[in-house]
Amino acid sequence: MKLAFAEVTGWGKCVPPAIMTNHDLATFMETSDEWIRTRTGIEERRVSAVGTSAMATVAARNALAAADLDPAEIDLIIVGTCTPDEIIPNVASKVQQDLGAKNAAAFDLNAACSSFFYAMHFATSSIRIGMHKKVLIIGAERLTRILDWTKRESAVLFGDGAGAMVLEATDKEVGLLSSKVSCDADARDVLSLDFGMSFDRYQFDGVMPFNFEGQEIFKRAVKGMSAAVEGVFKETGLAVDDIDVLIPHQANKRLIDFLAKMCKVPEEKTMINIQKYGNTSSATLPIAYCEALETGMVKPGDSIISAVFGGGLTCGAGLIVWGDRVTPLQNNQMELEQGADQSALDLILPLFEGSKKAWEARGK
């Protein structure tokens, strides 16, 4: 059986209009711009007034426009997210409905921050063995709705957004050519949000227990991503000198700097946009790809290394060889129409007050 490759032919993003700066956070939280920037590299993040599926749909429309595809041509939709609008039905089915992609199978994938890369890994595999021809993959999160806004250690890190790609079968040796995904489940509890089947909805007081052990997460992220990147180099026979661009998960500026040093990629060839959006979990990678293309960082034929790490603890890395086209075939800059009249503080302050009252009721 002849294997195909999976070329990225379309890309698009959706970032909500409401911007929450570090200075905004300092108006209701014991923190400062300097405290956040020096520890994370984050200066601002976006806050969505609409659900995950709405952002995912806008990003998907932009990706389809870049590929100049009719939604009916898509035969599979995968949405990576850990913040779905609802448990049932899935976000992907809503995106399918909104796009009119009636010929597509649709499912969600939750590997936390690694979700989009996991989706690319499995979508590429499906295309290579001939199961699908044109796949839409999306990473979308509305993290600001689930955070405990009284906890600065975690609340300052995250933001909302979505990004998408179209993968199409091709005979050209491009796309995701090598990838490694894994899970360090022994430490799965160092990053967790208790809102599953064990959650007592009758006792819910507005606070979802969010465990975030930053130092342990950082240590395991370094170990996991390093091993994944080294595995990709070993499989492909490439060396660090062969890499043109590094596009990593945007979780922490120090972690990005470590990866760049390990891969010997200079800062000008490392995509960094965490300062604008914070950690948007599964959306960071596709948003970063979109901006790398928009700024001219990615050129035709470039060899790109991506690495991700997320709750679970999931991990992955891959080599993507870009195709010939780095510009969209149609305008892919559509934006959210809802929520433009609300500021980030308008959206977040009620959540902060709710969390504070819940903790006070608990006597903490």
From TrEMBL:
Cross-referenced Pfam families: ACP_syn_III (PF08545), ACP_syn_III_C (PF08541)
InterPro entries xref list: ACP_syn_III_C (IPR013747), ACP_syn_III_N (IPR013751), FabH (IPR004655), Thiolase-like (IPR016039)
NCBIfam families: fabH, PRK09352.1
Catalytic residues identified in the record: 113, 249, 279
Purpose: Catalyzes the condensation reaction of fatty acid synthesis by the addition to an acyl acceptor of two carbons from malonyl-ACP. Catalyzes the first condensation reaction which initiates fatty acid synthesis and may therefore play a role in governing the total rate of fatty acid production. Possesses both acetoacetyl-ACP synthase and acetyl transacylase activities. Its substrate specificity determines the biosynthesis of branched-chain and/or straight-chain of fatty acids.
Protein family (similarity comment): Belongs to the thiolase-like superfamily. FabH family.
Location of the Beta-ketoacyl-[acyl-carrier-protein] synthase III C-terminal domain: 234-322
Database matches in CDD domains: KAS_III
Gene Ontology terms, MF aspect: 3-oxoacyl-[acyl-carrier-protein] synthase activity; beta-ketoacyl-acyl-carrier-protein synthase III activity
Keyword Acyltransferase on entry: yes
Gene3D superfamilies per the UniProt record, alphabetical: 3.40.47.10
Enzyme Commission (EC) number: 2.3.1.180
Region (ACP-binding): 250-254
Pathway: Lipid metabolism; fatty acid biosynthesis
Domain notes: The last Arg residue of the ACP-binding site is essential for the weak association between ACP/AcpP and FabH.
Recorded catalytic activity of this chain's protein: malonyl-[ACP] + acetyl-CoA + H(+) = 3-oxobutanoyl-[ACP] + CO2 + CoA
Localization: Cytoplasm
Gene Ontology CC annotation, any one: cytoplasm
Name of the protein: Beta-ketoacyl-[acyl-carrier-protein] synthase III
Coarse class of the protein's main subcellular location: cytoplasm
Keywords: Acyltransferase, Cytoplasm, Fatty acid biosynthesis, Fatty acid metabolism, Lipid biosynthesis, Lipid metabolism, Multifunctional enzyme, Transferase
Domain Beta-ketoacyl-[acyl-carrier-protein] synthase III N-terminal, residue spans: 107-184
